[in-house]
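Record type: monomer structure entry
Structure origin: computed from sequence
Chain ID: A
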Amino acid sequence: MDASKQARLKELTQELAELLYEETAPEAVKSLEGIEKAVRGHWLEHVGPEIGLFLSAQVAAQRGDDSGQSPASSDG
């Protein structure tokens, strides 16, 4: 990853962290264990699924370009 992409990723990550912090109970971030649980919870509920959907759509689009079908529409 080049330096400009790393800088952009850092900016976006900071913005995401600020948004998720606003949605985290204050008592949850008083210990390292609480922070880890909060991060894991936000990842599992919000962040991971969105990234997974994005990547799945990219694969489907690539396969659609090759075969005209998405993986979900195959006969099988």
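Annotation 1: The radius of gyration is 18 Å.
Annotation 2: The chain is about 75% helix and 0% strand.
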